[in-house]
Structures are given as structure tokens and as C-alpha cells.
Design brief:
By secondary structure, the chain is α+β, with helices and mostly antiparallel strands. It folds into 2 domains: 7-187, no CATH class; 196-387, no CATH class. The chain has 7 helices and 16 strands. Strands 1, 2, 3, 6, 7, 8, 9 and 10 form an 8-stranded antiparallel β-sheet that branches. It binds zinc ion.
Length: 393
């Protein structure tokens, strides 16, 4: 899954970050080392957080001790990659930074629990004269302490990409994955100026994932629905079973695997759909909907509800890499209630209403297509306003 944030370098090049996800097949000893590292990371996080809290109460100052301080009293920390512990310190410092900056959106850092927190750790690559500490081989990833861990690559890095860091993770069904982050310096793309006919407006839709201003809809593939139905049936079966029994354990594992399968299907759909749109259009207009808030109002179990945020993020970087723009308009714009023909704004339209007639000009609207048209018009106006360009040009 490629991810990107861009930083200009000043020489017409920008730094892109690409992530490659690989499945890991550790030996028993390597898996034990991973488990150990996950545990040590949780331990060091909790110790640093506890000491930060104590120190804050005693002196009123914010201070996080470094992992080195704990190694004497907890010698088992020496068994794992020191880089992983340093990263926990960085992550905790970052968690406090965002918390201090914006306490209402980012909560106070929490203690980590084995039961609820993800099994994962991150380690940075260091390049010494003797070579890098982390690198990929034909069929594996070489890591500090673990050595070469067998891996399956679905895609390969380019030779000139710089390996920055890895995150090793165990998912809920017990599979290991490694996210390898690369830094790539690329030529900055020429900015593309959108026109009305090369711009698409997308409206989030509960039933269709999105609806475009042209009337096109991305109906979620039927197999996604089939998997979803299967998941609901499995869930019902689980409720009827005796927790703790062997059958129950097996069913839980199957349930988790199906869950994972659906997540993969969804990710695949989102990547393909965003790729298609980013290649076909010069700009995409979307509303900055508060998706977390919206999904609370949705019926439980809508497989695509959580995918829209990812879809937007995929679109953003896929467009940016081509010098194109994702134009976000305010979520407070009344795009649904505004007539895209005459511009008059009417009262709230009930959720179940699919079509309406404008009381001012008599235009008949499909509710979602009309909203997508408004999102596009609003987005373009915003874009040309920002750029100080004449829209008719
Ligand atoms: Zn009208």
C-alpha cells in the first residue's frame, strides 16, 4: 500500500514515501523474538508513561526518560532490537506533542494492554560503512537481531529507493506482516489546472459508496456483499456457541480470517477505484465529511462505511503524484439541499427521500447526483478563487 507525504527539496524534486507491505514467515525462534519485542515495546511504553506522569505531578514539568534508563532493572530489554525501544520513545513523545497541541481531538496517551493494543513494533534503518542494518533480499527481509526473515513480496522496491524503517505487525488471526517504508526523490509533477469538463464531483453514498455528478455510481462489488452476509451468519453462530469450547475457538479463528479477507477485498476495491478516477480526471471534488460521526448513524455492519476515509486518502495521493488536486469543500456546505440548477436552498430533506423537485425552478433532482453536482461546482469555485484564476479561462 503506497502512502505519500510530499516535501519539496528545492531542486525541482520532491520526496515521496512509499510503503510496501509484505507477508512474513518467521521461524519459530524469530516469531518468539517478535513476541518478545512486542511485549518489551508495551513494557517500555508503560514504564515511560508512568514515569512521565509521576514526574509531572512532582515537578509540573513534562519529561519522558529514555529507554536506556530501564535496562539495568529490566535486563530482558537487551534481548530485543534497541531501535524498537527508541521508536516507542519517539511515538510517546509524538503522542504528547499532539495532545498538548490539541487536547480535545487527541486524547491523553494511554497505557498499552496486551489484549487490546496491536502487536507491532517499528525500527529505523541505519546505514553504516559495513552496510545497512535493514535490507531486503530475494525472499526475505534482513532485520537487526532476527536476521533474515522469509517474506513474500507482492511488489518490489525500485533500486534507488531508500529504506527508512520497518514496522512488524501480527494481526488478529496470527499472521505476521512487515510494512517497509521507502524514501524516494522524484521529479515534481507539473501542476495540472482542472477545467469543468475534466473535474468530477463525488458524493458519499450509503448505498452506492459514491455517486458522481455525472450520475455514475460505484456500486460495491457483489462479492463484498456476499462476504458480508457470510460474516453476519458466522457472527450469529458464534453467539449460540459455548465460549471456550474447541469448536468455539475454531469458529473464532474462521471469523477473524473472513474479517481479514473482507478487509483485503475492500482495500483492493478502494485502490482500483481510486486509481481509475485519479487517472481519468484532472481534479476530484469531495466534501470533507466527518466520517466517524456519520458511521455512527449508519446501520451496523455496512462493510464500506469505514472505507470512504481510506478512499479519499488514496485519491489524494494518487492525484498529487500526477500534479492533480483533491479539492475538499467544507462539510457545512448545504450541498444536498441546494438546487444545482437555480441555486435556491430548501429545508432539510428527509433521509429516505431519493428524489425531489425544486420549488423555485421546478427541476427534478436525484438527491445524491444533485449533491455531487453542487460539490463539483463549489469545489471548482473554491479552486479558482484560491488560485485567483478566471474560471471561464
Ligand atoms: Zn431550482
Amino acid at each position: 500500500m503506497p502512502r505519500q507525504t510530499k516535501t519539496p527539496c528545492g531542486d525541482g524534486r520532491t520526496v515521496q514515501y512509499n510503503t510496501i507491505k509484505v507477508r512474513l514467515y518467521p521461524t519459530e525462534a524469530q516469531a518468539a523474538l517478535f513476541e518478545n519485542t512486542f511485549g518489551c515495546c508495551r513494557y517500555i511504553w508503560n514504564r515511560m508513561l508512568a514515569d512521565q506522569q509521576r514526574f509531572y505531578i512532582e515537578t509540573g514539568a513534562h519529561f519522558i526518560p529514555t529507554p536506556a534508563k530501564y535496562k539495568k532493572e529490566a535486563p530482558f530489554l537487551k534481548d530485543v532490537d534497541n531501535q524498537a525501544l527508541i521508536q516507542e520513545h519517539n511515538k510517546l513523545s509524538q503522542a504528547f506533542r499532539v495532545f498538548f497541541k490539541n487536547p480535545s481531538s487527541f486524547g491523553y496517551p494511554n497505557f498499552k494492554k496486551k489484549k487490546t493494543d496491536k502487536d507491532s513494533y517499528t525500527a529505523c534503518n541505519h546505514v553504516f560503512e559495513s552496510g545497512p542494518t535493514i535490507y531486503t533480499t530475494k525472499d526475505g527481509v534482513r532485520m537487526t537481531k532476527a536476521g533474515v526473515v522469509r517474506a513474500r513480496f507482492s511488489r518490489r522496491p525500485q533500486g534507488w529507493w531508500k529504506l527508512k524503517r520497518i514496522t512488524v505487525e501480527k494481526n488478529r488471526s496470527g499472521k505476521y506482516y512487515c510494512y517497509i517504508l521507502y524514501e524516494c526523490r522524484v521529479k515534481a509533477p507539473e501542476p495540472v489546472v482542472p477545467a469543468a469538463r475534466t473535474t468530477i464531483g463525488l458524493k458519499y453514498s450509503m448505498a452506492h459508496f459514491y455517486v458522481a455528478d455525472s450520475g455514475a455510481m460505484a456500486d460495491p462489488p457483489h462479492w463484498l456483499r456476499q462476504s458480508q452476509e457470510k460474516l453476519s451468519k458466522m457472527q450469529q453462530r458464534l453467539h449460540r456457541m459455548q465460549p471456550g469450547s474447541k469448536n468455539y475457538q475454531e469458529a473464532v479463528q474462521k471469523y477473524r480470517e473472513l474479517h481479514e479477507h473482507i478487509a483485503n477485498q475492500r482495500r483492493d476495491f478502494i485502490h482500483k477505484e481510486s486509481r481509475r478516477i485519479a487517472n481519468a480526471w484532472d481534479a476530484v471534488c469531495m466534501r470533507a465529511d466527518a466520517l466517524a460521526e456519520m458511521s455512527r448513524k449508519l446501520p451496523v455492519g455496512n462493510v464500506l462505511d469505514s472505507g470512504y476515509g481510506m478512499f479519499r486518502e488514496c485519491l489524494r495521493y494518487k492525484l498529487e503524484r500526477q500534479g492533480k488536486r483533491l479539492i475538499s469543500i467544507s462539510r457545512y456546505e448545504p450541498t444536498t439541499r441546494t438546487c444545482s440548477v437555480c441555486g435556491s436552498v430548501r429545508d432539510q430533506i428527509p433521509l429516505r427521500v431519493k428524489a425531489w423537485t425544486c420549488p423555485q425552478c421546478g427541476a427534478v433532482h436525484h438527491k445524491e447526483i444533485n449533491a455531487a453536482k453542487n460539490i463539483k461546482a463549489q469545489g471548482l469555485a473554491q479552486y479558482f478563487g484560491e488560485q485567483n484564476l478566471d474560471m471561464s479561462a
